[in-house]
Amino acid sequence: MDPPTYFIVISIAAFIYVFYKATKCSVLDDIPGPASKSFLLGNLGELLLNQAGLWYFQTDFSWQETYGDVVKFKALCGERKELTRMISGKGIFWVDDNAHKRQQKVMLPGFRTPETKNFLPLFLSCAASLSRHWSDHLISLEKDQLHVFNISEWASRATLDALGQAAFDYNFGATGNHDNELGQVYPNMIFNAFGSPSKTTLVMLELLQFLPTSLVEFLNSNNLSRRVAVLLKVANVANAIAKELISKKSEVLLEGKGKKDLMSLLVKANAGENPRGQLSEDKILLPMRALIFAGHETTGNTLAWLLYELAQSPELQGKLCAEIRESELSIEDLEGMSLLGATVRETLRFYPAVLHLFRTAKEDDVLPLSAPIIMTNGEILTEIKMPKGSRVALSIPAYNRLIIFGEDAHMFNPYCWLEPEHVKKGRASLGPFANICLGWRFAIIELQAFTVELLSNFQFSAAPKTERIRRESAIFMVPTIEGEVENGAQLPLRVAFAPKGDE
Ligand code: HEM
């Protein structure tokens, strides 16, 4: 078949499939939910073209309030695998079943509590490097002149450097404007690839996911669209650096001089596996891109949102500064800073970096419900029968505002984590710390270290554009400015030197 005919056949097959999907009846049809807004996109536009989470919990109209905690919505929602491959390679986020377990097992030793705690000095040093950069800039200004930094950009750069050093013993040079290629292509990568998509882009992305993987891989590898080009560029640079790093790590390990960064631990753990459980040489590259993806934009965006909240609340900022002043910077002290811990936890709840988890039932299954739901036909269900192939999108922003987090779950209130009752009701083990992220300890210590270092040196307050901040949905929750969304991730805050001592 020549390429044009092949393309026409594929397009017709895709259309028939889409038509079949859009009109097919399902046992899930009686679950309450909004009417479909578009034949091709269903309700996907409402989910992905608005501010992150808005459709679940905005006060004047919300899916959560109108339909409850389980909502049926229409979308093609094909397999997300190709999307995942393009972002993070065929690593832990792409593989299933046994391959997933193998990758988890090999990565786990790097994420245990003692190993993660060892990263504290390194995080503090990366945060100090950001502080120096900002200080130099502030010193160069006229006296009393306040400076507005794009916190989003700097948080992204600094957390990329922290990840590079902790995970790979590698300097991306993102904070210091060095000439590292990866340090240049990674910041803002997610927004450039996924931020503010048009309806056409969404339809194309959805349709791509119904084509055979090999064809999609071929199309993507040759596609010159701006968004795909961003991802390809990052993938190529990351793969080249990963290869260079792995060969260095293996040599060092063979000489018995392995370091304590995640990648060295991973190469070591893999070498210690029995040959059947070992990842092959090319597969050991896979975690690197997955780790950069999972461990940089997540903490970068969370840090930006945390500073945003502090800028809105001088009282909270002052109390945190006081707590930090009274403590040393050891790991024990960090653990003892209860308001700091509560603020980080509340930021993770209120601004969840990851917006959705997508899951597909591999076989007929039953989804138990924590509370009964009333179907449109009046039936009351305490569990949902999920036929094989059913797709579920878990909204983390919606989950994190459930009543289980308290009556004031719609407000940012770190103090609630200090109330013994709040934690006793089991909330501590929910949401932010749910058991799905390998890097959660890493993330908490990193966020604490950055907050301590930055608040020890600077004061944050709102800038003129701060009130126009939007929560952009770009796989992650990314801050942008109303009216300037096309300029990418932005969180402008005024930064000044912190008053010294009792000033
Ligand atoms: C604010 C920070 C973070 C948040 C909100 C977060 C959130 C998440 C979520 C929701 C998942 C589940 C994804 C899915 O199943 O589709 C996940 C998985 C994962 N995260 Fe994180 N993460 C954060 C930081 C980190 C860091 C710093 C690292 C590594 C340095 C990391 C490494 C991973 C890995 C390896 C997985 C895959 C685990 C598996 O599939 O078994 N994360 N994370």
From TrEMBL:
Keywords: Heme, Iron, Membrane, Metal-binding, Monooxygenase, Oxidoreductase, Transmembrane, Transmembrane helix. This is Cytochrome P450. Belongs to the cytochrome P450 family. Its main location: membrane. It comes from the Eukaryota. It is found in: Membrane. The lineage of its organism: Eukaryota, Fungi, Dikarya, Basidiomycota, Agaricomycotina. It comes from Gymnopus androsaceus JB14. Its cofactor is heme.
